[in-house]
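Why show two proteins at once? Because comparison is the fastest way to build intuition. When a single record is shown, students tend to memorize it. When two are placed side by side, the eye starts asking what differs. So, the first record is below.
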Amino acid sequence: MLCRAMGQPQLADDPRFQSASERKAHEDELEQLLTAWTTKHDRWEITHTLQAVGVAAFPSMSSKDLADDVQLNGRGFFVRLPHSQVGVQTHTGIPWILTNAANGVRAAAPLLGQHTDEVLRDVLGCTDEDIARLRAGQVLY
């Protein structure tokens, strides 16, 4: 299928590429053939050509490609939130959508020590006096 998509169906019968061990033995030649084909086409053209003949294919995507992706943005995968130190930042969300709970990123990344008092008080049960004593002893940031 790949050979046909490349416009070189004769390669399917080429003994250099008949088995994995032969392809490995002729890896440089195979890479040259693939490079010659792929450099003449846009990555999306190659993707659609391969998919049309049944080859599972998708182009490599950079972080910028993903951040600009219409589908990911359309389903709310990315969340852009303001951060007090670095301005608006793009955060990746979760790849699924929950029906009975909140989805995605709800807050910017915390600052160092931002939730210390909250965790000590609400999770560990410390009193305000306990927290003040820890701060006075320079145990906390």
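Second record. Ask yourself what differs from the first in the token line.
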Amino acid sequence: MQGHGNAGSLKELRSLIRMRILTFTSLFPNQAQPTLGVFIYQRTAHLARRPGMRVEVVAPVPYSPSWLPGERWRAFSQVPREEQIGGLCVHHPSYLLLPKISMPLHGRLMYTGSLGLVRKLHQQEPFDCIDAHYVYPDGHAAVQLGRVLGIPVVVSARGTDINLFPSFRLIRPKIRWTLRQAAGVVAVSSALRNAMVELGTPTDRIRVIPNGIDARRFRPIERISAREQLKLPREGECVIAAGNLIPTKGQELLIAALARLAAHHPTLKLYLVGDGPQKAALKELAKSMGLGDRVVLAGARPHDELPLWFNAAELSCLASRREGLPNVVLESLACGTPVLATRVGGIPEVLSSPDLGMLVEPDATSIATAMEEALARTWDRDFLARHVQSRTWEGVAEEVEQFLTECCMRRR
């Protein structure tokens, strides 16, 4: 980090500093997976636009020959070694990975596969720090890289890395080591911060920096206009659930809740926006409950299209069993659409008032009751949007820059 020494305040000092930052994470959009880790891309891209900030991205991918079966593995084989994404230079070194078997070694394998490239980039032009996302395996690998390069590492916790992985006997020590060795830790919610404190992380090393929203895209528009652009029916009640189709997201609870309401809400439809391994099972469940034409699996949609989906709906739902701080909650509110969500992770920190949405337990009966109440209410869309639209990615980037600067100064 190059700077001038005797500034009167941190703000003045930051104005004199130029930093070269390595963003390290496997959760970053790429040519084959353009919607992967969009929230990390947003934070990184806005950080790179800050005066004096120069960011380069290393996003490792598992080594995957094109002949391996499975859609996921074919996607990995299509990721280029280097690409430009939104003005960012993104490198994709490959590393060995044996699914399920090598999880305790995942961080070490990611580190080994990335070391040569990271060392080369550092020799060409030194980095001042590493901004890593996801505590394990990404953060674990990043801390090892930082020790080799002699630079501080700041690790951002996202959710599953803290809410689930510490319960695995062989992974918990690696997570605790990563949190102890990092120069600083970012939590996207107070709930994650508290969980990391319980893992032994000093409170003064943790900064809570929630995600942001793109207020230019996520804003209220006329519901009929949104439906017409998506080619959805102009009439009838519409509920949307945006997220990967995986067991922890609990979409089957939403389908079961819809079955309880179907008779009294004959026009109500549930749109599941996302893709994943649960797709076939969810489709079969809807069919078995007689909801084949009322549960629409819309598939993975471009992130730029999500504002239309939120605006088209009377209600946005999230039935997750665990979360960090899901961006879909912020984005739905920014569009003026109320949220019905389970009381997990950092969600209660956003839905802090009954005027913003409804918090429920993760069971179909509770969800059905709350859904019926939410559909009957008249919501103030302008109030919902105003509540979150000040939380911009520009503001998030400023907070991240400040924390990175502090961590670098402390390490120096």
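One difference worth noting in the second protein: The longest strand covers residues 19-24.
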